[in-house]
Amino acid sequence: SHDAHKVKVEYVSANPTGPMHIGHCRGAVYGDALANLLAFAGQKVVKEYYINDAGVQVDVLARSAFLRYREALGEDIGAIPEGLYPGDYLVPVGERLKDEFGDTLMSQDEAEWLPVVKEITMDAMMGMIRDDLASLGVQQDVFFSEKTLHLPGNEGGNTSRISDAIDELRDRGLVYDGTLPPPKGQLPEDWEDREQTLLRTTDVGDDIDRPLVKSDGSYTYFAADVAYFEDKFSRGFDETVYVLGADHGGYVKRLQAVAKAVSQGKTEMSVRLCQLVKLFRAGQPVTMSKRAGTFITLREVVDEVGKDAVRFMMLYRKNDAPLDFDFEKVTEQSKDNPVFYVQYAHARCASLFRQAQRELDEFDAEDAITNADLSLLTDDGEIELIRKLASWPRLVQAAAKSHEPHRLAFYLYELANLLHSHWSRGKESPELRFINADERKLSEARLVMINGVQSVLSAGLSIVGATAPDEMR
Fold first, then answer.
1. φ, ψ dihedrals at 8, nearest 5°
2. Please, which residues have CB within 8 angstroms of residue 275's CB and are 6 or more apart in sequence?
3. Do 369 and 445 form a contact (C-beta atoms < 8 A)?
4. Whole-prediction pTM
């Protein structure tokens, strides 16, 4: 319906200066699963990635790529100078520049080649990031470029979306020219005692008013945040969620202040922080990467253990608690590996329907499910399973409301545990087995319960973003 709650979840938004690392991975999975959960709970969700393509780091990236271009032309560039990006992921970009321009860029001034190289490099980086995300099963609906906020271009006028947003807030009395008090304690080197263009963020809950324009006349990163939120608000979202790394904790107050100022309190806004991930292999810490040198890339982890294990385990702790991820643990086939345990429960359910096909004459699942007599399910283990199933809809609503997709991962594990335990009891006590050809009515009632378990496991795994296999070898 058109009056469904419209929510925008912005997540990952990693700086497009290289491949995604394992730290980005948790925010990507949490944001994606949260968006899936909100959609499953009936909200209208847009998944978005904000590309930081306007900052100084993009110029540095382009200069780093230009160096790789010189290398592609046969020059010996030696060690990568301090301050440039050393990663060999820029080597293919150098090759691409050579293929496209031959050696013509060499005769140009930096002012001439920089914008060209910047565009091609950004395109290559975003291509790499999208591939990384795709390997994790993350597909976002909108990739929003920060650069578009800085560009002139409103009906041929020379204003930008940032200047428009600032003008509008100035008209509402929220932007003024004034000086900021010096920060308490040690004066930072970049502190300026000068009149500045400030947003009255203290009116809406921030500690200090925030500068919008730097001393050289360019806009602050914060000014872009203001214009970006203005854009989100104009797209009609009832709620916006930002998923950030825990190192961005300092932004929370100012982002909430922006939301209040721009939307005049009309839109809900929440920031969710994801804590760090520590990697282990059989209990030993892993820090170095074969490919990227200094950090482990997201892709290395997905390539080694698979998307399902990564997605499930990244949700096996609450987002704001630190998470330990052990390569060995998540690939073993045991009860201690929640991913395997839950997927195996789904496969077991599917196998029971195959067994019913073989052992019960003319078994028709649809028919059996419609006509079964559920009052025959009286064993404590069965009642417990049914009770667990009955709590699923409420769990989904509560997890959506509190933005806690990890609750689903825990629930799925508990449901799988009940199924496996009951299965084991059937080994000791044949009368508890799910299928018994002599007890047709009872078998059909039990299969209705199994069908419920299977469909909840399948729905839960799809929100988490992992597959629900019908068989496991």
1. -115, 125
2. 26, 246, 319, 320, 321, 322, 323
3. no
4. 0.93
